[in-house]
From TrEMBL:
<keyword id="KW-0378">Hydrolase</keyword>
<dbReference type="InterPro" id="IPR036928">
    <property type="entry name" value="AS_sf"/>
</dbReference>
<keyword id="KW-0597">Phosphoprotein</keyword>
<dbReference type="GO" id="GO:0017064">
    <property type="term" value="F:fatty acid amide hydrolase activity"/>
</dbReference>
<dbReference type="InterPro" id="IPR052096">
    <property type="entry name" value="Endocannabinoid_amidase"/>
</dbReference>
<keyword id="KW-0442">Lipid degradation</keyword>
<dbReference type="Pfam" id="PF01425">
    <property type="entry name" value="Amidase"/>
</dbReference>
<comment type="similarity">
    <text>Belongs to the amidase family.</text>
</comment>
<dbReference type="InterPro" id="IPR023631">
    <property type="entry name" value="Amidase_dom"/>
</dbReference>
<dbReference type="InterPro" id="IPR020556">
    <property type="entry name" value="Amidase_CS"/>
</dbReference>
<dbReference type="GO" id="GO:0009062">
    <property type="term" value="P:fatty acid catabolic process"/>
</dbReference>
<dbReference type="GO" id="GO:0004040">
    <property type="term" value="F:amidase activity"/>
</dbReference>
<keyword id="KW-0443">Lipid metabolism</keyword>
<feature type="domain" description="Amidase">
    <location>
        <begin position="1"/>
        <end position="433"/>
    </location>
</feature>
<protein>
    <recommendedName>
        <fullName>fatty acid amide hydrolase</fullName>
        <ecNumber>3.5.1.99</ecNumber>
    </recommendedName>
</protein>
């Protein structure tokens, strides 16, 4: 069908008055959960095979309008609420060149395809790091815009009816300049608003993006919740140096109350104590990577709360998460109020993720910006080197199960990519892109 769409564009181009759209004939890959008319959007659930989308989402309508040709759907983890990439419909996607390492999730198929040179641009989705984590694991670039710079109409999220914490679509590319070129055109006019009146008429701000702008940027290498491995810390400090060389002011910053906000994030994302996801999984073939998640959903909320007390002595972070689930509308209201209060304005350069790619996920460094509804993007800065591995062996803490898991997972990761993340408040994605581009220029020289 992609070939048929290409032929149709070629036939239109024969008309003497035809004006080629900006992205005429360029192939684009799509995360499987993005509705494309006539194709399944299973999100990895066997029960949703054979239920094709009846129409394109607004985003797909726009990219077709701009001349793109969708040519492939890419893999996702079952339920979309995982940071690996495996499901019983399509199987497992790993990092190209090393099947022992995940390409991340939930846009892991997109990242793997880009890293394998199978696509030049793809559209991913992100509700807790699902664009940024796969890009980090594979060395790609990408950005999660704030929630209302794209339309959500027609999209298939992990948990329908969830307020405040939205899954945001965004471009994933081999370099951040390609993402800039894409967004500059997509946001060049009010096409999105005209087709979805709930999207504010915010167009591309070239003055905000202009090279030479100087910004005050906060940075941190440890959020007080989970200490990143040495390679990640080094990458942030290198990015700090690059931004200072470009004329930006970079100052230390520490995000407040991260453990509390992570608990609110999990509560808001699951919204119903995990009941929707549990119901979907319990009537499906469950991917082995989700057995642990399913086990949590099987334990009643009140028992999780009770068990949190003895667990806290030995695993305080786990106990914090055990208090996250709720079925109380009062607690949900309080959570939404806390999130609204927490949202503020600051531009940050942060660790992208706690560790390079290998069989382990903790999402505090990404999910925080979904909670804040900031625009957040990533770009590659460096690769894991021998010094990083030595510091991991000698200096990285092993004081609890999570740290020991991270330490073990990152063994022998030399040569693997390390990204950094830049975030800014809603409707300031151009600032994020400017800073990412300045870092990219410093790293690549182009």
């Amino acid at each position: 069908e992609a070939e048929r769409w290409a032929v149709e564009w070629d036939e239109k181009a024969l008309a003497p008055d035809f004006v080629k759209p900006t992205f005429f004939g360029i192939p684009i890959s799509l995360k499987e959960c993005i509705p494309l008319e006539g194709y399944d959007t299973t999100r990895g659930f066997v029960q949703d095979i054979g239920k094709p989308s009846k129409s394109d989402s607004v985003l797909i309508q726009q990219i077709k309008h701009l001349g793109f040709i969708p040519y492939v759907q890419t893999n996702v983890p079952q339920s979309l609420l995982a940071y690996s990439c495996s499901n019983p419909v399509y199987g497992t996607t790993n990092t190209p060149g090393d099947r022992s390492r995940t390409s991340g999730g939930s846009s892991g198929g997109e990242a793997a395809l880009l890293a394998a040179d199978g696509s030049i641009i793809g559209i991913g989705g992100d509700v807790g790091g699902s664009i940024r984590i796969p890009c980090h694991f594979t060395g790609m670039a990408g950005i999660k815009p704030s929630s209302l710079r794209f339309s959500h109409r027609g999209n298939a999220g992990a948990v329908p009816g969830r307020p405040l914490i939205n899954a945001n679509e965004g471009p994933m590319t081999k370099d951040i300049q390609t993402s800039v070129d894409f967004l500059k055109e997509v946001w060049s006019n009010n096409w999105i608003t005209e087709n979805d009146p709930y999207v504010p008429p915010v167009v591309w701000n070239d003055e905000m993006y202009r090279k030479g702008n100087k910004f005050r940027v906060g940075y941190y290498i440890d959020d007080g919740w989970f200490t990143p491995v040495p390679a990640i810390q080094r990458a942030v400090l290198e990015a700090k140096t690059y931004l200072e060389a470009a004329g930006h002011t970079v100052v230390p910053f520490h995000p407040p109350r991260v453990p509390q906000m992570m608990r609110h994030y999990v509560r808001a994302v699951c919204v119903d104590g995990g009941q929707f996801v549990y119901n979907k999984l319990s009537s499906d073939i469950i991917d082995p990577s989700l057995y642990g998640q399913m086990l949590i959903f099987l334990v009643p909320v009140w028992i999780q709360r009770l068990l949190a007390y003895p667990v806290e002595k030995f695993f305080p972070r786990l106990a914090n998460m055990m208090r996250a689930m709720t079925l109380s509308t009062v607690e949900l209201r309080e959570t939404y109020a806390e999130i609204e209060q927490y949202r503020g304005e600051v531009v940050l350069i942060t660790p992208k993720h706690d560790i390079p790619a290998k069989l382990f996920s903790a999402v505090g460094y990404t999910a925080l910006f979904n909670l804040l509804d900031f625009g957040a993007g990533v770009v590659n800065v460096t690769k894991v080197n021998e010094s990083d591995e030595q510091k991991l062996r000698d200096e990285y803490p092993g004081t609890d199960l999570w740290y020991r898991t991270a330490k073990n997972a990152c063994k022998d990761s030399g040569g693997y990519p390390v990204n950094v993340q830049v975030a800014a408040p809603p409707y300031r994605e151009e600032i994020v892109l400017r800073l990412l581009r300045d870092i990219e220029i410093a790293v690549t020289g182009k």
